[in-house]
């Protein structure tokens, strides 16, 4: 199995716009993304996730995710578990508010004081989960010592398309198809000295299945495209050596 680029944590906030707690989830996620854990987190779009967005669902298969739901329906947590994997952590705003004694969260567009308190409290909880999932030690001291350089050196948070997972665009059965993680797999096979023959292409396809949905009827097309891509990759590598 190849090593996936820089580990990050995905945050999936619910899209419940009918309740003020839904606003809390989104504002808390954005606070962590842009202010508290820049570069360590990405946000995933729940509507795209539900609609079958491969970028969102693939990210959640590679990286740990934290779901932030407004109410006990837990739409974000259930969607993540159904379509990708069980969330590493789940937060429900109504439960956070009850535990901290925050009452009367209101105003979906402009949160009241209780809502703003809930945003800050939720953001702190999310940030703590991020640190634990990334196994960061003495993070507060590191950030304090580097605070003067944060603006110049910290990478802004991005959506899942900036996660660093590489893809190859292959023509398979006459259709341009994104094959997730194939560049990493080819690099690994090439470093192991594997030749660009059909047997290796079969192994590459087996590994690619971990990250991609390969319909049974499309296997011959996938195999041919992967073998051709790996042959081109090996040829390019020899040309550079």
How does the SSE layout of this entry go?
Blueprint: E1 9-13, H1 20-36, E2 41-44, H2 46-51, H3 54-62, E3 65-69, H4 75-83, E4 89-92, H5 93-100, H6 113-133, H7 139-146, H8 150-153, E5 158-159, E6 167-172, E7 175-180, H9 182-191, H10 198-208, H11 219-240
Parallel strand pairs: 1-2, 1-3, 2-5, 3-4
Antiparallel strand pairs: 6-7
Structure commentary:
This protein has 241 residues and is α/β, with parallel strands linked by helices. It has two domains: 9-160, no CATH class; 166-240, no CATH class. It has helices spanning 20-36, 46-51, 54-62, 75-83, 93-100, 113-133, 139-146, 150-153, 182-191, 198-208, 219-240; strands at 9-13, 41-44, 65-69, 89-92, 158-159, 167-172, 175-180. The protein has a five-stranded parallel beta sheet, with helices on both faces. It has a two-stranded antiparallel ribbon with strand order 6-7. The longest helix has 22 residues, at 219-240.
Indicate the structural class: alpha/beta
Overall number of strands: 7
Q: Runs with pLDDT <50, length 5+?
A: 137-163
Let me know the largest β-sheet. 5 strands, parallel
Rounded Rg: 21 Å
Strand order of the largest sheet: 4-3-1-2-5
Q: State the helix count.
A: 11
Mean of pLDDT: 80
Total number of domains: 2
Distance between the termini: 25 Å
Helix content: 40-55%
What can be said about this structure in brief?
By secondary structure, this protein is α/β, with parallel strands linked by helices. It has eleven helices and seven strands. The chain has two domains: about 150 residues, no CATH class; about 80 residues, no CATH class.
């Amino acid at each position: 199995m190849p090593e996936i680029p820089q580990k990050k944590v995905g945050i999936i906030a619910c899209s419940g716009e009918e309740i003020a707690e839904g606003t809390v989830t989104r504002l808390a996620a954005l606070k962590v993304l842009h202010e508290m854990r820049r570069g360590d987190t990405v946000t995933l779009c729940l509507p795209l996730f539900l609609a079958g967005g491969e970028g969102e669902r693939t990210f959640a298969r590679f990286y740990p995710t934290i779901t932030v739901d407004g109410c006990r329906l837990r739409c974000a947590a259930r969607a993540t578990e159904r379509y990708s994997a069980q969330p590493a952590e789940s937060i429900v705003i109504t439960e956070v508010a009850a535990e901290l004694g925050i009452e009367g969260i209101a105003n979906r567009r402009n949160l009241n004081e209780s809502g703003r308190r809930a945003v800050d409290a939720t953001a702190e909880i999310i940030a703590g989960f991020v640190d634990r999932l990334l196994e960061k030690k003495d993070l507060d001291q590191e950030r304090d010592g580097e605070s003067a350089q944060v603006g110049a050196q910290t990478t802004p948070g991005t959506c899942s398309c900036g996660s660093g997972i590489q893809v190859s665009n292959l023509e398979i059965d006459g259709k341009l198809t994104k094959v997730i993680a194939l560049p990493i797999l080819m690099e690994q096979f090439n470093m192991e000295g594997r030749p660009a023959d059909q047997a290796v292409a079969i192994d590459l396809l087996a590994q690619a299945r971990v990250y991609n949905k390969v319909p049974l009827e499309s296997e011959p097309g996938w195999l041919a495209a992967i073998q051709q891509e790996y042959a081109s990759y090996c040829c390019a590598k020899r040309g550079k050596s």
